[in-house]
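Re: weekly structure request thread

Next one in the queue (402 aa):
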Amino acid sequence: MDLAEDINHNLQYYAYLEPITRRLNAPGASNWVRGKEFSGMLSNLDNCLDYMQAHPKQREAATYRSKYRLLLTRALTLIRQHFTNTLRETAADVSKRIADRQLNDTTMSALLYAKFRIGAAELMELGLEIQKRAVPPVDAEPGAEAEYQSLMNELYQSYSATRGRLILPLIAKKMAEIALAPSTSKDVVAFARSSISYMRGLCVDEYNLWKEWFASDGGLYEFLEAMCEPLYDHLRPRIIHETQLPKLCELCTLIQTRYMEDEEEEEQQEDLTDVLRLDFGHVIQPALEDAQTRLVFLAMAVLRAEIQYYKPKPEDLDYPRTNQGVALSGGRHSGPVLSGTRGRKASANGLPKTPIIVDEEGMESRFKLEPSLQDCYPTLRKAIWLLSRIYRLVNVSFHSDD
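Done, posted below.
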């Protein structure tokens, strides 16, 4: 009896092959995905594969293992088909309702988000069946892709493409409206403030919806970056054609201080909701890099034209007159003197946490050197003016590997 029970226990892993093969290859097998027993079937396949892996010396264990692996692939492929079909049907319904009549913002939001939340929990559970099996084998080489990761990537791509077809036209329309508005049509900073704020709100909404469809962030930021393309289509030309260095400084300051989260803010948000942990700074990073690139270009132009190749005037070299002016003033200054030990201490402790833009006309009132700036050589005044503008704006590395 003990021997018969042991034989029966071992044979059950072999006997499961024929019925599950008929079930997965039968017409209408895709409808089985919605059934409660589908998850149990996947677990049985896992158990059979583990048994064949643990008993490689049994007769035909390798053959059965290969067949069970094909059946598991077939079952996970059915999940992908059901996922994409459901997604396509939902998107088609939403598109039809949008095309049939003019909708206000509330109705549009209900269609674009509430409609997509229906059945999202069920599809997430099915997606998890693929995700938890998308792991590299034990004997896989470092860096090797998991066996079923491509199926999971197809779910991400299908969702991203479907949402993109619905959302991108609305984003493009909104960007065009902001670009033509009187308050933002000619000012790159005003346009960036309005357009990036709109995109941040939309990215938060899409982030929340993504979390209802998927249990991980895989493919999320690629999707959000694609949603920002209409923004860059309008913002990049404005940045490239911007010739005022102060405007670019203001744009970099705006992005760094308002849309980039620092480490302290991230630590404070660790215990908050997932919405607040959306890394929008990663999404908007290309806009900052574009502004920094253009800022460096203009700064180099100023450096070459007004410092490197500056041609001094006679009064610039009239040092007796300059020294006489300093002597008559008694060397007194209304502001702090940034020299010596006290100056070094003050400059070390007084660095602004956020960038400060200094006008060239008011530079003498903020920086008091020995001698005063109005008596300095013009290239020194220009160098301090330039540094005061680009300080902390172009030498910042976000999301570094260090």
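The radius of gyration is 32 Å. The CA atoms of residues 227 and 235 lie 14 Å apart.
Next request, please.
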